[in-house]
Amino acid sequence: MSSIYVAFSPLMQEWGSDVGVSKHLYKVGFTDDEPKDAIQALNDEGYAGHKDWQLTGARPLAGLDQPALLTRLAERQKVIDPLYYPKIKGAKDIVKLEQRKVEANLVIKRTMEGRDSKVPKLKPADMADFIMDSLV
Questions:
Q1: What is the rounded distance in angstroms from the CA atom of residue 52 to the CA atom of residue 11?
Q2: Backbone angles phi, psi at 85, to 5 degrees
Q3: SS3 for 58?
Q4: Residue 65, SS3 per DSSP
Q5: Per residue in 83-125, pLDDT tens?
Q6: Do 131 and 6 contact (CB within 8 A), yes or no?
Q7: Bridge partner list, 4
Q8: Partner of 26 at 20 to 30 A CA spacing, among 58, 76, 107, 122?
């Protein structure tokens, strides 16, 4: 069964913070294999110029192929243009997230569940869940 996965590279996030893009940069991918194998392939290939990719989250996905996923991703999230940033070497599926939007989403979710609505400290898994929720 195919899966959608979200990965991040600490070096890419550091680069994004240094150049003023965002420190919240994530790669969204689609695979028919295990997501861990896809992350290993990213590291072997040096995807977007980095070899330190880590799996943040994954979900099984039915009824969607890679071109449809990339189209939906571009409609719902801010995708970094690889022509404008040559450092990412043609990667067309790097997403830039705004921290306050993710925080607001988490606060609303927690409030609707009846839990404490305090703004949480974000973790990469929270960012991955936000991306995957927007795509599914």
A1: 7
A2: -120, 85
A3: strand
A4: coil
A5: 888 888 888 889 999 889 999 989 998 888 888 878 888 899 9
A6: yes
A7: 30, 59
A8: 107
Lay out the sheet containing 3-8: strands in order across: 54-60, 3-8, 25-31, 94-96, 78-79
What ranges in the chain are assigned the alpha helix state H? 10-19, 35-45, 66-76, 99-112, 124-135
Domain boundaries, the chain: 3-135
Look up the pTM and report it. 0.87
Give 71's contacts (C-beta < 8 A, 6+ positions apart): none
Strands 94-96 and 25-31: antiparallel
Question: Tokens 């890419």 label which residue?
Answer: 12
Q: Distance between CA atoms of 61 and 3, rounded to whole angstroms?
A: 5
CB atoms within 10 A of CB 62: 8
Residue found under tokens 């790097």: 94
